[in-house]
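Quiz preparation item.
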């Protein structure tokens, strides 16, 4: 039987994985501020009767909100690093049987009337618990002493889930597929994509709110 593939994830990895998104929002905001100044002699906050200027101002404010959301995610991870102590996470690549075991547990715990968002939340939490082999000493554990990150605050669960998903699907937590025209890149910071039309906020993985398909 072959050895299970594992990788180390640091607090810096978890926090830094949001840097690309932060840079995209920041750059997009600054571009619109420059556009308002140079093309319309306006700024972000001054009311105007020009519908075009108003639309640009609103878009800039959405980018600014996106920056704030990412900053909040990074800040809470910094606080959790202080709370749970130093040390790294070790996550493994799940086998097919482990993935199916997660699915069976989800189906056993929830009935057919359960909202899909709750089902996805449960699936993600169990996936993180199954994949986390080791964790800093302050991270919650189960009765057997195994790490149980799903009992930690949402921000940590989501950040770990994103790394687990990338590791299971791409074999590296910092791999970014390049598609047809671009070379794949590692780390993530080497392949920033264009920002979306409106900032997206990271979905939560607890309290009945599930990550979206884009998480």
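Solution:
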């Amino acid at each position: 039987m072959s050895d299970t593939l594992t990788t180390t994830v640091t607090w810096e990895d978890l926090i830094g994985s949001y840097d690309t998104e932060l840079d995209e929002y920041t750059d997009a905001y600054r571009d619109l501020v420059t556009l308002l100044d140079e093309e319309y002699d306006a700024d972000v906050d001054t009311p105007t009767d020009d519908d075009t200027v108003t639309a640009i101002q609103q878009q800039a404010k959405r980018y600014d909100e996106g920056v704030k959301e990412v900053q909040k995610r990074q800040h809470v991870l910094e606080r959790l690093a202080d709370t749970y102590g130093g040390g790294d996470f070790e996550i493994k690549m799940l086998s097919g049987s482990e993935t199916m075991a997660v699915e069976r547990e989800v189906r056993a715990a929830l009935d057919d009337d359960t909202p899909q968002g709750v089902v996805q939340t449960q699936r993600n939490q169990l996936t993180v618990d199954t994949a986390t082999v080791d964790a800093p000493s302050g991270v919650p554990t189960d009765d057997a002493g195994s790490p149980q990150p799903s009992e930690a605050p949402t921000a940590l669960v989501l950040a770990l889930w994103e790394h687990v998903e990338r590791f299971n699907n791409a074999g590296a937590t910092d791999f970014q597929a390049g598609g047809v025209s671009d070379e794949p890149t590692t780390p993530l910071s080497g392949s920033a994509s264009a920002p979306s039309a409106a900032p997206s906020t990271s979905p939560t993985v607890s309290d009945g709110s599930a990550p979206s398909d884009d998480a």
